[in-house]
Amino acid sequence: MAKRDLRNSLTAGDTLEVVVDNVAHGGIFVARTEHGVVFVPEALPGERVRVEVSRVQKSFAHSELLEVLEPSSDRVEHFWPEARLDRAPEHRAGGAEFGHIKLAKQRELKTQVLREAMQRFGGVEADARVVAAPGDNDARGLGWRTRVRLQVSEAGRQGPFAARTHNVVPVSSLPLAAPSIQRDALLDERLVGAAIVDYVALADGSTDIIASEAGAEAGRSDTIVELVGDREFQLDRAGFWQVHREAPALLTDAVRRAIDVSLADPKAANLDLYGGVGLFAAALGDLLGSTTRVTSVEGNEIATDHAAENLAEWVGAQTATASVQQYLKSTLERASAAERDRFRAATVVLDPPRAGAGEPVIDLLADYAPAQLVYVACDPVALARDTGLLRARGYELATLESYDLFPHTHHLESVAAFRRA
Ligand SMILES: C[S@@+](CC[C@H](N)C(=O)[O-])C[C@H]1O[C@@H](n2cnc3c(N)ncnc32)[C@H](O)[C@@H]1O
Predict the structure, then answer these.
(1) 215: pLDDT confidence band, cut at 50, 70 and 90?
(2) Is 185 within 8 Å of 202 (Cβ atoms)?
(3) CB of 240 sitting under 6 A from ligand 1
(4) Ligand 1, from 228, 274, 323, 383: best to mutate by most atoms within 8 Å of Cβ?
(5) Residue 185: how many CA atoms within 13 Å on its side-chain side?
(6) How many A from CA of 240 to the centre of ligand 1?
(7) H/E element holding 339?
(8) 378 is catalytic
(9) Rounded to the nearest whole angstrom, what is the distance from the C-alpha of residue 275 to the centroid of ligand 1?
(10) 274: closest CA among 256, 300, 248?
């Protein structure tokens, strides 16, 4: 039977009463209606809600939530007053799209999204469960963000965008932010002329405040130091660092656990891809000893400069400023037979951005043919797609752990281990 075209029966601006069926990837929910699939934000499965259609395409429509008519027992009042439903959708603060859901239910929904993605795109039945980071349950999922980026309105007021808009919503509190940011943020000040302001919770308990104009290039700036256990990592104050206060230590442990030490060889051509300032190269080095050979590959030159310092204690550690794809391609092209043996014995950690590694990089990795890969992923669908590609190239998923490192949002972080089948 031909599928119905939603454009024949729905128009932007229509209001509908719908029953929400399920969660989808991206922090949105699905209602199957007489017209077809309607995506609904800020809802929960089982709820009857009133929505306004915002965009109609052939096979689905998007909507904004106006009113909850029959709430789920997992619904709570949003912890952030500026994100509550008593405001019009375009004036609700974005960035905490699961804040209306009990914390335990948020993790259940994330687990479901992860498992469904792994089954659909990765072809594997994963039994991983998204678990809380230490301290988050006691803190009700608040106070974890060590980095907060706010937009600045023309009038100089600060806040996040409302979801799906470029409308700045001024806020009077930042409940997800680390306590030092909550204490130091200049939310009452007018920052006229700035386009964004970044708040960074520093390890010494102070807050770095970086206001930038529109289109400003993030050049080299001051160096800051982060601590993971008693190890120091230096980085640029505006550079990438894992956002949840527990994430660097938790992911370091998870990466170490994911590595099968019986397959790891300190003398192999080990890699830390998308390496940032060398967090996971250090995890590998800690596990395999002071002579570990590992190359941290990162596209940002400022980060690789810091990585070189951070990895100085390992005589076999190197850094390369390059795109991962380019690095793998050129390394494979000029490899001798002996080097190819060191590739095959390697342990490769990769931590790509949200879009995942993607087919060209997975193909090159399969040619590199390391003994094992540890994939740190912030997007379950990208991980699942790359899982499918790796399985097609002879790797099997050995372990999968998943963490709720972004409470009150739909995001989650996973650490997957793949071994050559
Ligand atoms: C999710 S971060 C991980 C950084 C590091 N592993 C950590 O945990 O601190 C991804 C990193 O990949 C870098 N990156 C993004 N695309 C890249 C590419 N195509 N080639 C090399 N590096 C890339 C970014 O600059 C960023 O530092």
Answers:
(1) confident
(2) no
(3) yes
(4) 274
(5) 29
(6) 8
(7) helix 337-344
(8) yes
(9) 6
(10) 300
Residue pair 62/39 in contact by the 8 Å Cβ criterion: yes
Q: What is the pLDDT of residues 132-161, one digit of tens each?
A: 999 999 999 999 999 999 999 999 999 999
Judging by DSSP bridges, how do beta strands 317-321 and 294-298 pair with one another? parallel
pLDDT reading at 221 higher than 90:
no
Give the SS3 label for residue 382: helix
**Residue 205: half-sphere exposure toward Cβ, Cα within 13 Å:** 0
Cα first-last separation, the chain: 42
| Nearest by Cα to 98 from 88, 113, 116 | 113
Q: Which of 253, 256, 294, 298 to mutate to test the pocket of ligand 1 (most atoms within 8 A of CB)?
A: 298
Residue type for position 241: W
Span 6-75: which CATH code? 2.40.50.140
Does ligand 1 lie within 6 Å of residue 45's CB atom?
Answer: no
Annotated binding site for S-adenosyl-L-methionine: 242, 274, 298, 351
Q: Of all protein residues, whose CA lies closest to atom 20 belonging to ligand 1?
A: 323
pLDDT for 192: 87
Q: What is the pTM of this model?
A: 0.96
Are 176 and 142 spatial neighbours (Cβ–Cβ below 8 Å)?
A: yes
Question: Which one of the listed residues 378, 390, 400, 416 is annotated catalytic?
Answer: 378
Q: Would you place residue 372 in the very low, low, confident or very high pLDDT band (cuts 50, 70, 90)?
A: very high
Nearest alpha carbon, ligand 1 atom 15: 353
The ipTM assigned to this model is 0.99
Tell me whether residue 8 is exposed, middle or buried, using C-beta atoms within 10 angstroms of its C-beta: 0 to 12, 13 to 18, 19 or more. Answer: exposed
- Which atom from ligand 1 is nearest to the alpha carbon of 280? 6
What residues does each domain of the chain span?
A: 6-75, 108-138+226-420, 147-217
C-alpha to C-alpha distance for 386 and 225, rounded to whole angstroms: 33
CATH fourth-level superfamily of 108-138+226-420? Vaccinia Virus protein VP39 (3.40.50.150)
Alpha-carbon span 78 to 89, nearest angstrom: 14
